[in-house]
Automatic annotation (TrEMBL):
GO molecular function: NF-kappaB binding
UniProt protein name: COMM domain-containing protein 6
Every COMM domain range: 120-187
Record-linked InterPro entries: COMM (IPR017920), COMMD4/6/7/8 (IPR047155)
Species of origin: Ibidorhyncha struthersii
Family matches, as PANTHER family: COMM DOMAIN-CONTAINING PROTEIN 4-8 FAMILY MEMBER (PTHR16231), COMM DOMAIN-CONTAINING PROTEIN 6 (PTHR16231:SF5)
Protein purpose: Scaffold protein in the commander complex that is essential for endosomal recycling of transmembrane cargos; the commander complex is composed of the CCC subcomplex and the retriever subcomplex. May modulate activity of cullin-RING E3 ubiquitin ligase (CRL) complexes. Down-regulates activation of NF-kappa-B. Inhibits TNF-induced NFKB1 activation.
Residues forming coiled coils: none
Length: 187
């Protein structure tokens, strides 16, 4: 991972670290590595989303472990030990700075840790479509609904999950959402 971190410019790495701290503080649902990766690639750096997600997981683990153990900035850098010699100098500087500025604000209550293992719903999008024909059937005229859920997994990575439903399935889905809304209003 250190060689991939070396590819990331300091400003993008700082942004990644800050987003991770915000996620750990429950201020944002997750780190949008796909969007950040696209911006890094646009600046001319060759890195893929998978590598950036691995780096985000490593930094997230580092910060959450440091928060759980109430480490100071000096203790964090000392704990990194051998990794400091492997990590690029700019990455160590960013980690030190971000941890010094915002690290102590990370709350690691037991409830937050338990909730984080589930993931978090971020957004939902849907669209109505009609399948007009296929290779095997000339005239389908079959309506369907495509739903895309944006979900932040426990590590904070935001991913899209898509699925299609028939109109009766969508009506049932909608009915269940109305029931959930009614229950939530009573709380």
């Amino acid at each position: 991972a250190a060689d991939k971190i070396n590819l990331i410019p300091q400003d993008f790495f700082a942004e990644l670290c800050e987003q991770i701290i915000q996620h750990l503080n429950r201020k944002i649902p997750g780190v949008n590595t796909a969007e950040l990766c696209q911006r890094i690639q646009t600046s001319g750096i060759e890195i893929n989303v998978g590598d950036l997600a691995k780096i985000a997981n490593i930094i997230s683990f580092l910060f959450s472990t440091a928060a759980r153990n109430n480490l100071s900035m000096e203790e964090l850098v000392a704990t990194l030990g051998n990794a400091v010699s492997v990590l690029p100098k700019h990455a160590v500087q960013v980690i030190r700075h971000v941890w010094n500025e915002q690290g102590t604000s990370i709350s690691v209550s037991e409830d937050a840790r338990n909730m984080a293992t589930v993931g978090q719903f971020v957004d939902i999008k849907w669209k109505l479509g009609v399948a007009m024909s296929s290779d095997t059937c000339r005239s389908l005229k079959y309506p369907y609904v495509t739903v895309t859920l944006k979900v932040a997994d426990p590590s904070g990575q935001i991913t899209d999950k898509s699925f299609e439903m028939t109109i009766p399935q969508f009506k049932n889905f909608f009915k269940q959402f109305k029931e959930m809304a009614a229950v939530l209003e009573t709380i």
